[in-house]
Amino acid sequence: MTDSLGQRHAELAEAIRRHDRAYYVEAKPTISDREYDQIYRELLDLEAAHRELRTPDSPSQRVGGEPIDGFETVRHAVPMMSLDNTYSQEEVSEFVERVHKLLPGEPLDWVVEPKADGIAISLRYEDGQFTIGATRGDGVAGDDVTANLRTIRSIPLRLRPLGQEDVLEVFEARGEVIMTRSGFEKLNRAREAEGQPLFANPRNATAGSLKQLDSSLVAKRPLDIVLYGSGEMAGGPEVNSQLGLFDVLGQLGFRTPNHTWHCKNIEEVLAAVEELDRIRGGFDYDTDGAVIKLNRFDLRERVGATAKAPRWAMAYKYAPEQVQTRLTAITIQVGRTGTLTPVAELEPVFVDGSTISRATLHNEEELGRKDIRIGDTVIIEKRGDVIPGVISVVKDLRPAGTEPFDMLAVTGSQCPECGGAINKDKEFVAWRCVNTDCPAQAAQRLEHFAARTALDVDCLGDIVSDKLVERQLAGNPLDLFDLTVEQLGPLNLGTDDEPRMFGEKNATKLVDSVERARTMGLDRWLFGLAIPEMGRTIAGSLAKFHDDLPAVAASPLLRDVIALDEKVAETVRINPRSRNNRPKSDADKVERERQYKSLVSEISRTLDGLVALGFAKISKENGDHPPNYTTEVGPSAARSVLAWFGSNTGRATLERLAKLGINPRGDRQSGGGVFDGKTFVITGTLPGMSREEAKAVIEANGGKTTGSISKKTDYLLAGEKVGSKLAKAESLGLAILDEPTFLRMCER
Ligand code: IVH
């Protein structure tokens, strides 16, 4: 190949990129389709003759490749969080006020954007080349759908260069894959003509397209993308704000929302939200709300995030569709922890793009509050992805002779699955089946154990789980470790009349992936064991702070959380200024004041330890009263987790794991120490060790020490006779540790 051919190829590729951008991103094509096709054809011909020109970032590589077996899971470099939602403008105002309170004295500005109703994805670029595109998944890890995303023309395969000095090493753009309404209509018309089932709405069509294993089929779907966020960024220009991010996204060649509003106060925010609602009908893609974001990134960092969502953003959802139908029966479902959930069986109705025949009723209390009865005409509502719910009853249409719902009467005081006893804990609103051998629970526990975000066991869905329990091959997830391919291969998943064998291939996959589960981390195990109240986030937090399962079972942190909760409740009870419980005499008042003070100082001491470890955050100091705080794991979950480990099931599980030789490790064990990546400054004379010793301890635990305090410092280790450093650390709001606290942190 001569250089001139290479050069011609580069020119063609660049021209195609330019025209793609003009057409797909800017919606302003500069050449006719025919001219475009000519250039494209020349590029394909050149590549056919010189295969080495067919590089992965060539525009020809969008057509889609060979079908694949399934998607790989990719872990997001920065988790993809979701947003807190509201349907009330009042809550939007409260949100804005809340952020103001967290950032006293700061003038704040906001960006209001359309909430695109599509599928969230992350696009990763390394040295300007598109490397990985993934769905959000559970926020921590998603599906690698790179091949499918490459077929979307508005996704640049290579970023446009910024300035010379701005070398973008890593750039993750985040946004929403959508299908335009016009593209969706066209697709459905074509499917109708071919006798294929129709998609209910553009969002479903988008989700269905991204899940295709054959990217050459995806290339034919009218997908598009809007970008509004970022993940990991390394190198390149500093991005300080949402508006700055939009600017950079635009320069790099991405499509950003066509309409955004920059607002200075709540009035402007609400006006923007309303204006968006007026004009969004004219957009060429579906939107279901407005997203309100704090503009400045430094302020975002200061307000932080809860476990699931940032505190600096909120989604306001426009009113969802409601319809009326009749509730024909109430059935009871048994969940994996034995919870009995009432379910409304409905006369089927069409709402928001799909037919609904069931809705959740949450729990008995909710049923009672809304006074929902069998035979009632009810209003149901579907909000996006959420399971439809019953909003209210049309009392005027209630037939004669209905009875209020009564769980005990409906179930005959028995679990509908196993006939075992049911019980309502004082602490929970839900009824539970107390029989841990209940097959419904057992099957759901197996399925839960096998979930991708738990122990990721292949070929173990609901049908196989049900069968394993029914055939008594596995009643509990740890039984899976005893199963063999010989046992599983002939398992009949069908009926005697119509047998359907599990098969050796699937059996091997299952057994192999069960083996793989042995070495999975503590977070996945904690989540997979179906401990009541143990969600992914709590499991993740616990794994960060504990070495293994026995450490969680005996966790001093969880005990501290419970003790704190009890002590705070006690301060409320004995508060000498309590209106409900006034002191009986002056002497009583004095005594209660003393007790109150001592409790507050006990609370502060416990809390300081937890804060120093990063397990708790103080949101507000309250002077002589207990501060407002949050802990990584709340008191109710802490109680539930310790109760489970103390129960027969919990103890038996730990014993069995030990026998199986399985000892899942927490993040600290598999990673480094408690101070991984943290920077210390030491000041003053430490009572029990020299500075050199302290430095060695810090380094042994993954941290480092520097001489002077800056914003980058994480901890000040302060001894006696401290100088100006203490004041500076305080003014910067750094964590200040004394020697005992520091040593305690190293022990855990
Ligand atoms: S920001 C950490 N902006 O809404 C903040 N999300 O309900 C992450 N979405 O998962 C999201 N349009 O899929 C943001 N302009 C927008 C959005 C948007 C749609 C989706 C996104 C997210 C979901 C949260």
Largest sheet: 7 strands, antiparallel
Through-space gap between termini: 64 Å
How many extended strands?
24
Percent in strands: 15-25%
Query: Which stretches of 5+ consecutive residues score pLDDT under 50?
Result: none
Mean pLDDT: 88
Question: How large, in whole angstroms, is the Cα Rg?
Answer: 30 Å
Summarize this structure briefly.
The protein has 748 residues and is of the alpha+beta class. 39% of the residues lie in helices and 20% in strands. The mean pLDDT is 88.
Q: How would you explain this protein's 3D organization?
A:
It is a single chain. This protein is an alpha+beta fold. The protein folds into 6 domains: 3-62, Helix hairpin bin (Helix Hairpins, Orthogonal Bundle); 73-317, D-amino Acid Aminotransferase, Chain A, domain 1, CATH 3.30.470.30; 322-433, OB fold (Dihydrolipoamide Acetyltransferase, E2P); 439-517, 5' to 3' exonuclease, C-terminal subdomain (DNA polymerase, domain 1); 536-660, no CATH class; 671-746, BRCT domain (Rossmann fold, 3-Layer(aba) Sandwich). Helix content is 39%, strand content 20%. The chain is built from 27 helices and 24 strands. The strands form 6 sheets. Strands 12, 13, 14, 15, 16, 17 and 18 form a 7-stranded antiparallel β-sheet that branches. A 5-stranded mixed β-sheet has the order 2-11-10-3-9. A 4-stranded antiparallel β-sheet has the order 5-4-7-8. It is globular, with a radius of gyration of 30 Å. Bound molecules: 2-(butylsulfanyl)adenosine. 2-(butylsulfanyl)adenosine binds at residues 81-83, 113, 115-116, 120, 136, 176, 228-229, 291, 310, 313, 315.
